Amino acid sequence: HGDCPLSRLLRHLLTARRSLDICLFAFSSPQLGRAVRLLHRRGVRVRIVTDAQYMGLQGSQIGLLRQAGIQVRHDQESGYMHHKFAVVDGRMLITGSLNWTTQAIQNNRENVLVTEDVEYVQPFLDEFERIWEKYNPINYKFF
Amino acid sequence: HGDCPLSRLLRHLLTARRSLDICLFAFSSPQLGRAVRLLHRRGVRVRIVTDAQYMGLQGSQIGLLRQAGIQVRHDQESGYMHHKFAVVDGRMLITGSLNWTTQAIQNNRENVLVTEDVEYVQPFLDEFERIWEKYNPINYKFF
């Protein structure tokens, strides 16, 4: 119905006008994938950081997002890139335990915290810029 | 060293004087397990909610915590109890992507948000009380 967690999340994302920075361990929800591609087509600058191990799994949206022309970077470490957050227009932080998967949205007990409080948003913005640069393919080490 | 993520987390936890409510998908860190048992011995009221599937895995601290006399409840659903938060003295919320595992602390890229802002703390307190009651063994359905 109109106020399920997925609808709330979609409503927040679809307020994006300029930028959407997404940092997600797992992204396989088709509805959220469609929303992100829609924002990209509207001219919003979308950037995605994800986990290298998870991105290749069946059902991952990452391939479709890349095909749509969206920039995606991934970790190159043995540990997980385990964040689950997004920042809309550098202004609104969406963070919590929720991966963007249908399993998590429908079956799990999860939390999502949404805030425009700069004190909380800024460290996540800083972390995004830090790992966006760290995972730049130019910096890949082959091992 | 003194200000690694584990030290910061321990420092926050060890401020508990009256209560510690923990809601964690995975809890296997021996250091954090010791800290929680220490608080229990000091007379802090510790309550733990965890995930039924994960709690039996090798390395889980849940057995040791129960042996120490700490109350633990778990979900009885097919989905995951995927929260990763704690509330200290009903006052300080510690939440984020981090499960309390050595793997996550040492190898993953994670976030932990710490706040005493009632606006953010209260919904997590409410969620804790809700699932603490929901997972009361009295309410078990056998299936």
What is the secondary structure topology, with strand pairs?
The structure is a homodimer of 143-residue chains.
Chain A: H1 5-13, E1 19-24, H2 30-41, E2 45-50, H3 52-55, H4 62-67, E3 71-74, E4 84-88, E5 92-96, H5 102-107, E6 112-115, H6 118-134
Parallel strand pairs in A: 1-2, 2-3
Antiparallel strand pairs in A: 1-4, 4-5, 5-6
Brief characterization of the structure:
Chains A, B: It catalyses: a cardiolipin + H2O = a 1,2-diacyl-sn-glycero-3-phospho-(1'-sn-glycerol) + a 1,2-diacyl-sn-glycero-3-phosphate + H(+). Chain A is α/β, with parallel strands linked by helices and 143 residues long.
What does this structure look like?
The structure is a homodimer of 143-residue chains. By secondary structure, chain A is an alpha/beta fold. The first copy, chain A, has a single domain, classed as Endonuclease Chain A (Endonuclease, Chain A, 2-Layer Sandwich). Helix content of chain A is 38%, strand content 21%. Chain A has six helices and six strands, in the order αβαβααβββαβα. The first copy, chain A, has a six-stranded mixed beta sheet, with helices on both faces. In chain A, α2 links the parallel β1 and β2. The model of chain A has no long low-confidence stretch (mean pLDDT 94). The A-B interface holds A 25, 75, 77-85, 95-98, 103-104, 106-111, 113, 115, 117, 120, 124, 127, 131 and B 25, 75, 77-85, 95-98, 103-104, 106-111, 113, 115, 117, 120, 124, 127, 131.
- The domain count of chain A comes to 1
Count the DSSP helices of chain A: 6
What's the quaternary structure here?
homodimer
CATH architecture of chain A: 2-Layer Sandwich
Structural class of chain A: alpha/beta
Strand content of chain A: 15-25%
Q: What's the pLDDT, averaged over the residues of chain A?
A: 94
Poorly predicted regions of chain A? none
CA-to-CA gap between the ends of chain A?
A: 48 Å
Determine the most extensive contact between two protein chains.
A-B, 30 and 30 residues
CATH class of chain A equals: Alpha Beta
